[in-house]
Amino acid sequence: MVFEQELTDWVIKGFPDLFGKSVQRENVSFQLTRKEFEGDLTLVVFSLTKFSGKAPEETAKLLGKYLVSQSGIVSDYNVIKGFLNLSIDNKLWLSKLQSVMNTPDNRLEKSMKADSDKPVLLEYSSPNTNKPLHLGHIRNNLLGYSVSRILQANGNKVVKVNVVNDRGIHICKSMLAWKKYGNGETPESSGMKGDHLVGKYYVLFDKYYKDEIRALTASGMDEKEAEKQAPLMKEAQQMLLNWEHGDPDTLALWKMMNGWVYKGFDITYKRLGVDFDKIYYESDTYLLGKEIVDQGLKKGVFYSKPDGSVWIDLTSEGLDEKLVRRSDGTSVYMTQDLGTALKRFEEYNFSSHLYVVGNEQDYHFKVLFLILEKLGYSWASTMHHLSYNMVDLPSGKMKSREGTVVDADDLMDQMISEAARITGELGKTSDLSAAESQNLYEQIGMGALKYFILKVDPQKRMLFDPAESIDFNGNTGPFIQYTFARIKSVLRKAGTENQLSDYSRASVSDYSGLNTKEKELIKVILRFPDELNEAAIKYSPAVVANYTYELAKTFNQFYHEYSIADVSQIDTSQFRLNLASETAKLIEKASGLLGISVPERM
Q1: Does residue 398 carry a pLDDT above 50?
Q2: For residue 592, what are the contacts with CB-CB under 8 A and spacing of at least 6?
Q3: Which of 31, 425, 458, 569 is deepest in the core (most CB within 10 A)?
Q4: At what angle do helices 135-153 and 528-538 cross, to 10 degrees?
């Protein structure tokens, strides 16, 4: 909090003279003053009474008088039970604002101490090449990309990585269905995106596979046995063996269909506004980890069962026994992840490694990190699973494929269409060209989608309502975007948009007419480093999202109560224009951390 450090120093300095005892920094606790009370920062006095030897109210009064007379920071105080509410001198708020306005990146200082030599490795997306990206991938990608921006804003080097699951039985299912039923269909001949086309054949495999299961069970076969004996499944398993043995025809088909998918993914990623510094492919990494298993056997970390399979016993840690290599010598996902983690550390010597993966994999990552620790890798303690919860939609609100998976491209189309409808009804595009209007719909639709997804803490399950997300008056992306456009309009009309920065360096700290609404807006602006710091520590874009909404809401409260440019006093007008300009800069910066663009006109 702004002024917390300075006030803590003064409390520590004055305590011995006031009470005859010293206090340590960890004993002094401040919080923002609640809005129903007068003040800016509140000192929690209860924890200090064991040092002062006096009642909370008396302790607070003595400290309040001391801070007013000695600190040069506090202009007034009041005591509410065991809480000392402190009012900060207006000139100091203006001085802090001046410092921010004179700092190029709108921050007083870097809010975290980053290791400048070692990067943070951040893995997100992790799609399969047998189907298009879906709603779950949207939350994953937006979360991963935004966290990367937040960490970078805190001074960290970040390497964004993606691991593509491009091999295995699921991939073979799509390949086999296309081979049997595709008649040479391609993205070009069908007019479909490549990932959608391949997903079509994955669904088709499932349809015919279930038909075969029903036929086998009708003939008297047990259902579980029918699932194993169905001809399509046996063919898919044989195709996987052919792939692993390097069969040229199988590999050619695999490369062709995966190529279709990658082109489709690229279109979706670009539209989402996310990217990666490096992409790993499971076909290149699935054999990694076998050597680690051999080393673990020698160290006694793993053990072999009579059938030759290799396991680790984690029951003493409250987990279970975990397979790390099958009896036939083949890898499992855990083996692969062990190898990939080691490979990445050798490549990047990372300071930490974050995995953005849904909470259904919580147990997997607990086991992975624990195994790496037992194997003696010191960097295992720097690994973190950024777990996120499910996204639900109101039934019937969105199109879904086969009623189960909401396609990412369909959802984005729906959002942009909804943005066009609502924006048109509100008459916000009457003076724009068709191209400008379409660009605005894209910005609003994607801004609404991103903000609504990211404003919810990653660990919380959320309900996504497309219509609610495009409300121009609620806690939404369009509300924030409209606030930015409103400020830009004010600045354009004032004709000062390009002159403000030069004037502000000499003017803001000299302003003498600070009112309550202006002060509240300054206080929110100055909180940005703390909010950014918290977002980075928690790996939570929700902190930035909700801060940005509060900033926009606070500005609008000020805007509706006071004129900005059309006032008789030139210093008041100029100050408010500066304040509005600084708000717009911060909205744009904070929105950018969420991957959201803000339009100049709406």
Answers
A1: no
A2: 149
A3: 458
A4: 130
